[in-house]
Amino acid sequence: MDLSRAKWHKSTRSSGTGQDCVEVAQNLPGIVAVRDSKNPNGPKLAVSPAEWSAFVGGVKGGDLQ
Question: What burial class does residue 44 get, using C-beta atoms within 10 Å of its C-beta: 0-12 exposed, 13-18 middle, 19+ buried?
């Protein structure tokens, strides 16, 4: 999967100290990509927009912590 055009943004759920940050790219057609900001060249997770929406909804609703 080519993520070279991904525009990465830190998640609002990331630590305020900048130490434990998750970055998300939502500008790619049909996928949402997620990576660890401490290791930008490391593994990335790609999910569908529906899966990402369900995950974010679960976190906001307290179902996932």
Answer: middle
